[in-house]
Amino acid sequence: MLRPGEGKRTARVALIALAWMAATSLGDDVAQSVFVSRAGAEALPRMILFKGLLDVLAAAIYVPLARGRTPSHVLVVALTIYAATVSGAQVLVSAVGGNWSAYALYVGHEAAWTVLTIHWGVYVLDAFDASQARRLFPLLFAVATLGKMLGGALLTAMAGPVGAVNLLWVCVGLAAVAMVLSARARARGAPSNSAAPALPEDHDSPLPDSDLDPSTAPSNLWSAWRGAVRSPLVRAIAASTAAMVLVRYGLHIVALAEIQAHYHGNEDQIAQFLGLFTTIANGVAIAIALIAVPRVLHVLGPRFANLLYAAFTVGAYVLLVAIPSLWTAATARFAHQQLKDAVKTPLSTLFYGAEQPGARGPARAFVFGAVIPAATILASLLYEAAPDAATVAWIGLGAAFVFTATCAVQNHRWRTRLVGLLTWKLQRAPESDIERLAVARKVVDSDEVARGLASVDPRIQALAEEVLVETSPRRHAHEIAQRVRAAVQ
């Protein structure tokens, strides 16, 4: 999986992922345990509303935060914000107590986590090219999932003797470790220039000719959103994401309602169950990510995997409606969290990769700062109006069918956008090697794909192979790409 020269960079990114994923996973489970035991699962829709409003603030913070800074620098600042938020929430819950502090912990943790989530995809895409991403994402996911398992194991073992709330200080310590690793990487690395204008075309034609100049980066949140929404792919991602928000919050509410009822609202017992579940479920997710996902992506492709996850959410809701229990709640929670992280999260990163490098940050800021908060507010209103968890499950089932349809649209837009990105990159790349180009043209119908495969830039080669695989029968396309690689070596 690793190739010469990739070891140090991969190890650094993996260690950062291990630390911050352990911190956020542990913090999330603690926040949920405190909230449902003090405020009750019936208050979750109101919490979702508050989170949606604060997510807009998180995205507004991210855009100026990222402007003029390297991805490593931004990650350090985002981790600092997270550690400060969790520290303040811990003091508040311990000193004040009551429902109000439970809201503050849950919403504060989610909002600080959002800033990290927005940036993580940008950070990883800056560290690895398309070819490396396809090979290394499963490994990075496995390491990140080990971090979540570590958080779950700590919660299971220590919630009883120490108290769930006090484990928030462990979250702060883990975030500090990730911060130090990111700062060391920034000190060793040269500043990178990934800023680029957002795509101005409102169709799927080749991308416009423009320089990657930092002065053209979005100056504020509104300009970032306005530029991002011009992309047909970003609009498709936005629609799919909005539907997924409704689906996932429905699963979240119904699952926690069943867990709360099963343990009669006991805070530490709920925390221990969530910790045990997190450990086991993430172990299963690692197996899926390392064994199943790479095979599905290679043989059937990202578009099939995207639809597969949507279909699983439909199945999870069917189980909740037909057989409401602790075990179907666990299945719903797995679909909401671990399966999403194993399948959907790496897919989302790949989908954003079809945009220009400098447009990816604004696109993610638009989705996380506008689309997700708006969908979150809608979800809170819908589920607040629902009289019981069973009604929430029925609403979520309908949203799951809509989610599946929007994923199909997103798949089409992504494939078309890849072709446009290849055209855009070839306009700026040096001329392809003549001998390599002659070999590629003998086996590839598309002149652009042939030029990409013959390019001297390995990133363009990787993108051209991706386009070939997504626009031709996959088995045949893999054979052609392998033949060209063998011929030019």
Question: Any overview of this molecule?
Answer:
The structure is a single chain. By secondary structure, the chain is mostly helical. The chain has 2 domains: 9-187 and 248-421, Up-down Bundle (Growth Hormone, Chain: A), CATH 1.20.1250.20; 429-488, no CATH class. It is built from 18 helices and no strands. α1 runs antiparallel to α9 (267-299) and α16 runs antiparallel to α17 (458-471). The longest helix is centred in the C-terminal third of the chain and has 40 residues, at 389-428.
Give a short summary of the structure.
This protein is mostly helical. The protein has two domains: 9-187 and 248-421, MFS general substrate transporter like domains (Growth Hormone, Chain: A, Up-down Bundle), CATH 1.20.1250.20; 429-488, no CATH class.
Essential attributes:
single chain; 489 residues; mainly alpha; Growth Hormone, Chain: A; 2 domains; 0% strand; globular
Topology:
Blueprint: H1 7-38, H2 44-66, H3 71-95, H4 98-127, H5 130-162, H6 168-188, H7 221-228, H8 232-262, H9 267-299, H10 302-322, H11 326-336, H12 338-352, H13 357-385, H14 389-428, H15 434-443, H16 447-453, H17 458-471, H18 474-488
Helix pairs in contact: 1-4, 1-5, 1-6, 1-9, 2-4, 2-13, 3-4, 3-6, 4-13, 5-9, 5-12, 7-13, 8-10, 8-11, 8-13, 8-14, 9-10, 9-12, 10-11, 10-12, 10-14, 14-17, 15-16, 15-18, 16-17, 17-18
Structural class: mainly alpha
Share of helical residues: over 70%
Provide the β-strand percentage band: under 5%
SS field, number of helical segments: 18
**Uncertain residue segments:** 188-217
Radius of gyration: 22 Å
